[in-house]
Amino acid sequence: MRNFDVVLILLAVALVAYGGLLLYSASLSAYPTITMDHPLTKQMIFALLGVGGMIVVAWVDYRVYGQMAIGLYALAVVMLAAVLFVGESAYGSTRWFSFAGQQIQASEVAKLLVIIALARYLADRQRQMADPRVFVISLAMAALPAALVLIEPDMGTAAVFGAIWLGMVAMAGAPPRFLVIALGIALATIPFMAMLTLGDYQIDRFRLWIDPASDPLGGGFNIRQAEIGIGSGGVFGQGLTEGTQTQLDFLQTSTTDYIFSVLGEELGLIGALVLFALFTALLFRGIRAATLSQDQFGSLIATGVVIMILFQVFINVAVNIRLVPVTGIPLPFISQGGSSLVMMFLSLGLLEGILIRHKRLEF
Prior knowledge:
Blueprint: H1 6-26, H2 39-59, H3 62-67, H4 69-86, E1 88-90, E2 93-99, E3 102-105, H5 106-123, H6 132-151, H7 155-172, H8 176-197, H9 200-210, H10 221-233, H11 244-247, H12 259-292, H13 296-320, H14 338-356
Helix pairs in contact: 1-2, 1-12, 2-14, 4-5, 4-6, 5-6, 5-7, 5-13, 5-14, 6-7, 7-13, 10-12, 12-13, 12-14, 13-14
């Protein structure tokens, strides 16, 4: 246990606490007092569950998960397929199972399971990465869950699977020409996949992303309010619980997709820089786990976790400042959401498991 990374956990807890402040402010008009139904209360309960799960995951030798890789991958695929038939729908997508009164997002669980399965497959073929069959099979392993998620439809999470795969095969040593060819094919097929899978409301999202003023009181309302909120925050922000767009409920999903807008409006550029500093430090601890791992399997798991967190942070912030269309990707550790928060802590549990068992003592 002397290798347990306390800094990694403290950074995650700091992010959850930071997100808690934003959740409290974003929920103030609907929840003037903190009760058991308050989003902040629920978030803290899920955080405690996540920390407990992280300890359990770290306690088990991470190589055991590699031995279970086939079963874990099958579980991920079955969950993603089942949610299409028996899942609950919201905002035009079918993504959630209902269990004990709580919603469990299947794709949040599947992301971590796919990371483990890909890490096992690629680690077992370290000397075969120049073989096109290995490359194609690894791509298929990521493409299948991505396609199931795309059917929900959830293009943002499908893109997360793609980013995870790309980072992991690059780390595993795939020839650059393979990566260039794969990216070229992906760019060429994305428009056709979009035509086959996107619903009318998602097509509207692209249209409104380009011109939110075309429907200022409808689909473009949230986009415009997020921009106004972030822009009005300036350098220091309007003050916690003092943001006009937030407190007047102009943001329809202020505790989830648009929580970064709450931060920008009330805490300003300084608040955003603090958030980015915390994420940067957390990601560097993840990179440290990848470099200190005693085997390729552990390095690839850590790489997948780092890519997953980094890409989700980028997409969520990019949505808030209108660099990309609205995708519904939560801001890790910050946005309200039990499935996302618990799975993020379980991901950190894998990193801790890797660090606990490494043989070198560099810090």
